[in-house]
Specification:
The complex is a heterodimer of chains A (about 500) and B (about 325). By secondary structure, chain A is α+β, with helices and mostly antiparallel strands. Chain A is built from 15 helices and 13 strands. In chain A, a hairpin with a 3-residue loop joins strand 3 and strand 4. The two termini of chain A are about 25 Å apart. With about 325 residues, chain B is an alpha+beta fold. Chain B is about 60% helix and about 5% strand. In chain B, strand 2 and strand 3 form a beta hairpin. The longest helix of chain B has about 35 residues. Chain B is elongated and about 80 Å long. The relative contact order of chain B is 0.15. The chains are: A alpha+beta (about 500), B alpha+beta (about 325). The interface between A and B is large, with 84 and 79 residues. Strand 12 of chain A pairs antiparallel with strand 4 of chain B.
Amino acid sequence: MARQQGWFALILALAIAAAALLATYGLQLGLDLRGGSQLTLQVLPAGAIKSIDQEQLESVKDVLERRINGLGVAESTLQTVGSDQLVLQLPGEQDPSRAAKVLGSTALLEFRAQKPGSEKEMQGLLPLKRQLEAVLAARRPGPKPAATNSQSPPQPPKLQELSDAERGQAFTALGLKIPPTSSELEQLEALQVEVNRRVLNLYGPPLLTGKDLTSAGRVQDPTGNAWEVTLGFNREGGEKFAALTQSIAGSGRVLGIVLDGRSISEATVGPQFKAAGIAGGAASITGNFSSEEARDLEVQLRGGSLPLPVKIVEVRSIGPSLGAENIRSSLLAGLAGLLLVALFMILVYRLPGLVAVIALSLYSLFNLAIYALIPVTLTLPGIAGFILSVGMAVDANVLIFERVKEELRSGNTLIRSIDTGFSLAFSSILDGHVTGLISCLALFFLGTGLVKGFAVTLAIGLVLSLFTALTCTRTLLRLLMGYPGLRRPTYFLPAHELPVGNA
Amino acid sequence: MTVAPSLVPEPRFRINRHRWLAWIGSGLACLLSLVGLGLCWLHPSIRSPLKPGLDFTGGTQIQVVRACGSPSASSGSNSDRGANLPCPAISAPQIQQELARLELKAEGSDQLPNLGSTNVQVLDKGRSVVLRLPALSPDQGSAVLEDLNQRIGPLQKTGSSIDTIGPTLGSRLLQGSLISLLVSFVAIAAYISFRYSGVYAFLALVCLAHDVLITCGLFAWLGLLRGIEVDSLFAVSLITVAGYSVTDTVVVFDRIREQRKALAQLPVVDQVDVAVDATLTRSLYTSLTTLLPLLALLFFGGSSLFWFSVALAVGIGVGSWSSIGIAPTLLPLLARR
């Protein structure tokens, strides 16, 4: 009796602790339950690096984390998965395509001076480059940056158009053939790629890179139409920048700012900097950016460039209403199902059935508390795993009570029947749970994503179920048997099933 | 009256008397499943035993809900203003043709996705539309969504989802699922050989194969007749079914082993009959208590769990059948006293 009370006190203490845990930490809901999007990024080997190790993955993660923080998306999480993947979760209604763009680019910034003797070719290329940029910007889908600012004067119309004839001219000037079955957009893009390639050819080697950056910011340019990105260099970077600008000051050659192999800005340096170059360790990129573009660039530059390129391999997004609908109906269904099970247990097993329902309620409480503690992020498959583990826990109780009934039918006393029932049922309960756990292990270590969430909740449920069936149910039942008023076989079995003379 | 037989009540239900019926029933179901899987494989548009979903093939799935049709959908936000109006009629081929004309921007070195191969499904009387496309980048996905909004909109802002799975990720998922299934089979067989014997392990695996085959067969037929696809949740349900099947079988085996000594003088067939009869109530009750939450999920659960629940419910039903009707009836053939 004293032993039972000790166990009972322990179970009670655990229940209170579990409830407190749940109340403090709460449950973490997965994206499929509360809406949001999930991006999977694959880190690609590049150059001398043939396979990605943990350290490189972490360094990529660091850079991405800085960028995410810069973007100001709330409550996002970035996790490494496997040996070469990262998973970013963006809860709520946040646009995954923008995050994808900011995270997916390497953001390698280079400052390169134009090679001497190429002034003429550059002068031919730059106007076409500007025009192409303007035309493409005007055609880009989505809100136009100029339209949001009512004060901005209308853009010169000729810049936004490029007639068929002009386009043809540009193709021949660049020595390209117009691809036969291409749309206007494709032709414009092909032109842009070629112009960029030629411009890059005219630049010297990168003398200064984003590594020497200490800060990045953005300001609106004096006309108020566009944004520029400001840069601050460390001492070494400032000196390099000064030397670089000095070398081309007053020569008419340009300083190219190259981001991920794309020339994003070309600036001339006035003759007044001939003596010392542009000193002070600060510069700005004027690339006719919209405020959002400027901000994204700023975030990328401030976060540093990625040591290895990444590719976005998966995007899953779920509208929050879909998530809310899912969770409500699944939870409701789960509860209804469990209620039916409870009713069934009490009807079929009477007093021990009631005990089992109490034990199973404790079981659910412990389960949820462990989810909050670890923490396990609850997803739809996770909920399914939970419901199934409840099924297993119920099965354990059914096995025990069937055995108890059998013992009673064969004429054993009540207390003895209970004890024998528990010990006889033990081996099949153990085997069932162990085989279940084996499947969970295989799923957890070999499965991916969704499958893992299911395996985790089912495994937690199985381990707990062993504990509750063998401890909680047993302790509660024995404690109740301490009261003579409850020690009646008819509380366990209908009277007609009992052997004569025992009822 | 000797002591041993008096401990054993005459079984009310003798499974081995009906064993031919059990074998024929299960054999037919297995045959039907194999035919389903074979037909699926031969079907020109499927070409695999089960119709693989997005999770395995890779690609982009866009699901949108139009802001019309259902009066309950009016949540007061601006995008849902048209919530009470009936949906203008749309047809899948029409959307498909219009999408094929949409120009997407190429990204990096990747090939431009061909929107002409889009699979369009119109659901809920035109209220929601599901598109299956080749894998799109996030920007391209938004462009398609924007295009849809213009053609069949207004769309509910909060109801849409875009899922993209890269082709390599899809095959990795398939590989992972198959490997974890096989590994768990082998590990379970090893455990049962260790706890019982090789014959029992073999029978447990026969049951397991039987249950998994019938569940797969059902989904092969569903794929053929209703276009139902299997996703990673289906793989999860198969593994769960496998686990349940083994648990169920083990309970019967445990009983046979336990009473072997007490019933040593009876033939194996009778030993099995007694064990099955003794565990019959438990088997039925357990399947019932497991099926109750599943049925609740089936009828009231979210749409995303519907086919998952179907697979589990069928698998668990078949699993408890095989633990009563297959493993115990085959045991006397294989096990000598």
